[in-house]
Write a structure and sequence with these properties.
This protein is of the alpha+beta class. The chain has six helices and twelve strands. It binds one DNA strand of 18 nucleotides through loops.
DNA sequence: ATGCCCGGAACGTCCGGA
């Protein structure tokens, strides 16, 4: 089965691209971020016609996340636990296809001298705490989305220029490592340990796409039982090259059925 | 140089994005 994640930067503008992507690549589960639309404006009927059930946490103007699945969706959790005063729509988690799976849009955190940076770090602390609880349940888990984290200097075109950026700051990266070190596998890096120049985001400004000045900030994190099933993971650059593209492009992974193919003793 | 481009909200121009 295939799982993909994509920050679409407005579901209203990007719906034709999303429908085309679903038709061409047919993921079992598609995680979307930056819908920039309220629940009522989410194109559930068009996506339903394409064969997908939807779990949506929308918001006006900013944020907004969704999980689309060819399989039934159950036990939907809307919002990241740990702060009842947080009104930003950045997390939705479901049970589908035998997995616990979340679509997340981690705060950007810039500028780092504003309250946005501590908000990002606090959100990451809540994500770590919630993930610890999820792992304790033993459910196979996938956490996918726009993490707004460049894990290492190998994950962006110009590390020096971003040294003090919230995407690269040590406070951000250390929390990301803590999250992964709970026992998660980052799918792309696990299968492409030495690849450089692999990006999922190219800004709209300064010809970044044309010059391949990108960042790898969209990730799929897998719990151990899911990582055991990982057979492929890659970045689909095609959507970023289309006219009226999102500034992000999809990342996907392929999981086998979980049946061991070797002969048991 | 925190702007270059883009989407949203709104109707002039600013905010947020990363």
């Amino acid at each position: 089965m295939k799982i993909a994640t994509w920050n679409v930067n407005s579901i209203k503008v990007r719906l034709p691209h999303v429908l085309e992507y679903l038709r061409e690549t047919a993921p079992d589960v598609m995680l979307l971020q930056e819908l920039k639309a309220v629940n009522e404006a989410f194109p559930e009927s068009e996506i339903g016609d394409a064969g997908y059930n939807c779990a949506v946490l929308g918001q006006r103007t900013y944020n907004g996340v969704a999980v689309l699945s060819k399989h039934p969706l159950d036990d939907v959790l809307r919002g990241l636990p740990g702060d009842n005063t947080d009104t930003q729509a950045r997390y939705v988690e479901v049970e589908t296809a035998g997995l616990r799976i979340a679509s997340l849009y981690l705060p950007n955190g810039n500028p780092v001298d504003s309250d946005k940076f501590p908000y990002k770090l606090g959100w990451m602390d809540r994500l770590i705490a919630h993930t610890e609880e999820l792992l304790e349940t033993g459910s196979p888990l996938v956490l996918g989305g726009d993490y707004n984290i460049c894990p290492t200097a190998a994950d962006l075109h110009d590390p020096e220029a971003y040294a003090n950026d919230a995407l690269c700051r040590p406070e951000s990266r250390s929390r990301y490592r803590t999250l992964v070190n709970l026992g998660l596998t980052e799918a792309f890096r696990a299968l492409h340990p030495d690849e450089t120049g692999a990006y999922t985001y190219w800004g709209y400004q300064a010809g970044a796409w044309r010059k391949d000045h990108g960042l790898r900030i969209d990730h799929l994190l897998l719990s151990p039982a899911v990582a055991d099933r990982l057979v492929a993971c890659d970045i689909d650059k095609k959507p970023r090259g289309q006219t009226q593209a999102s500034d992000h492009t999809p990342v996907w992974c392929e999981l086998n059925s979980g049946e061991r193919e070797d002969t048991p003793w």
